[in-house]
Amino acid sequence: MSETMEFATQSCTGCRTCELACSYHHRGVFRPSTSSIRIKGGDQLPIFSVVLYLEDNNGHLACDGCRGLEEPLCVKYCNVVGREELNGFLQEFKKKCSS
Amino acid sequence: MKSHKVCGYKGKIIRVDLTTQSIITEPTMKYAREWLGGDGIGIRILYDEVKPWVTPYEPANRLIIGAGPLVGTLAPGATRVAVDSKNAATQGVGSSNACGFFGQELKFAGYDHIIVHGKARYPVYLWVHDDRVAIKDARHLWGKTTWETVDAIRNELDDCDIHTMSIGPAGENVVRGSCIIIDKGRALGRCGFGGIMGSKNLKAIAVRGTGAVEVAEKERFLNAVGESRSKFDASISGIAPVFIRHGTISVTPGKSTHCMLPYKNFQYLDWPQEMKERFDAEYIRNKYRKRNLSSMACPIPCGRYYWVEDGPYAGLGAEGFQFEDMADFGGKLAVDDPAFLMKAHTYCNQLGLDIDAAAGSIAWAMECYQRGILTESDADGLKLEWGDAGVALELMRRIAYREGFGSILGEGSAHAADVFGKGSEYYAMHLKGQDLYEVIRTSIAWGLGACVSTRGGGHTTGCPICETNFVVDPEACKRKFGVTTFNDPLAFEGKPELVMYYEMLHRVNNCLGVCHFTTDWLDIVFPGFPELAELYSAATGLETTEDDLRTIGMRILNLEKAFNILHAGFGRKHDYPPERMLEEPVPSGRVKGWKIGRKNWDKLLDDYYKLHHWDTKTSFPTRECLEKLGLKEVADDLENAGRLGKRRTN
After folding, report:
1. pLDDT one-digit tens code per residue, B596-631
2. A42 to chain B, minimum CA–CA distance in Å?
3. For chain B, which domains are there?
4. Hey, is the C-beta of B470 within 8 angstroms of any chain A C-beta?
5. Separation of CA B212 from chain center
6. For residue B257, which of B423, B467, B479, B459 has the smallest C-alpha distance?
7. Which of B210, B291, B295 lies at the smallest CB-CB distance from A33?
8. pTM summary value
9. How far apart are CA B60 and CA B67, in angstroms?
10. What ipTM is given for this predicted complex?
């Protein structure tokens, strides 16, 4: 199993609010360096990708799909522009984990 | 359960002396209760440490960067960073604020503020990486644009997640209208802060943080976040979807209706029909937009990535321009090409040149050329024709690199007019020495807020939007402002009250690190004082009410006012707009023939000063007003200088 899943995005606005929300889910503090989700890219070209960590990696904690919560916190706090697409990525992640 | 440890804040301020290369840390919390954070703490430190005889470009001036206590949390819109210093354009107080990721990164590194003073012996940059703070050689970066600088720093430190504040050639050359750029596209505009960094040989500040920001009352905080976020939903706010779709360009229709579109150096307040069509928001969206952009915790992603596919600027891609670029480069210079807006906007970002300063002085020069006051020979052989994009870009370059005529323009239209004389002074559109962006004539509270603004113009320290933009909830406005003229732009009654509300709110936002657009500035239903008080109380564990926040806002305003009085000698006469804005009738459009008139402005200022408990003759704060805000020593300072306000009976 590879360490990460990476998705190229059409809608992501690069705000990284998902990183804040995810880190809060894990440890109750806002610490993007520990987040299971990371947004890559931005300055040069309008290409962002969403990275989900499947294993603990360099401080980033493995994604658990926010098991037990109504919806993953990254999706809940995503803005209205990126939310639907991000939710799709999380669904793919969950499918992969259950396979 | 409330926590006793520092929450929201990180509790540490870095102090750097570039002359001695010393780096120490100091506690934030001694300031927090009275000054809140961000801009408020910055202004207090500035007042205490920079004496009236210190000029902006000398080593003793402080550059103070601050990320507020909500930055780095999920508080909606808590994505901004404040910078305060002595104002290079006005010689009074300077403050600037920008979005982006710098503020959050500073908090994750473990700090609330950075104070920089002194001057390095050669160009340096400051590197803040968690608990390691170092001054690094930047001689190889000197001469680079801001874009080149951030790329080079990320490359040499091998970390693409570093965020920077940097200056370009304009700041290095200590151009008065220069600014600081965050990463590649967010500007800490006005006040000439680029030159202040340049005068210190400080090329950049780079920051990377892997730590945490904590909140005191977790459940209460998340509830407050949810409560605030719900107000941005399309079912509650009709404005949010429009703003997400077009960003600040969405304000153009309202400004068009109310004659708020500056054209040819404010000679006209309406754009030609062809220009309005080319600058139409849907047209620009379809032609240039690739995706939306935004920053941490922002619920209304209003930034847009634009890509220019054809024409002379083909291949240009970056965060797109704001309405302000349209007004500055399109309207004021009469260039009706949106691709030129993109070019001018990105060029200024790369050079580290403030767009209001650049467009203001170029527009002045073009009008003086139009009227025969300036000639080609004065302009080093350039024909300063309206609408000439090439000349405009060349002037921006010459301003940034201080070449000939550009060097004079770079001082701002007020100083440039002093140099040339010959009646050119009338055409210098400035407030307190700083080039003006805001249309004053046709939106009275907006104009009043800009004219009395302590930082020399600007609409982000007390100007309401509601007079001319968007549909507002009239009943909610009446309750919030206590006046009924909030959407009657030409009425004088009730306008000091509107300005005062936003003087407080804007300052509180700038302390907490919250974007004005995610508060009731943009839409009356968005979070305001109650929501901000709740977010702050829950985040920090320091119980704070709505009234506490309003008081802090007024405290900061009065301290800024005292700073201006002591440092720049500002008084009542400096709160007047340029003569054109008072006495020239609006030449065309829906309110053709309208003018303010000096007598009306006299009365407006009287009412404004009375509301603030300031001396109506001088505008100076009274002792009573200052002591009520806990500023007795400031009242003493003003009294010692012979500039304390008196209570007037009329």
Report:
1. 999 999 999 999 999 999 999 999 999 999 999 999
2. 9
3. 12-208 (3.60.9.10), 232-435 (1.10.569.10), 444-526+545-640 (1.10.599.10)
4. no
5. 28
6. B467
7. B210
8. 0.97
9. 23
10. 0.96
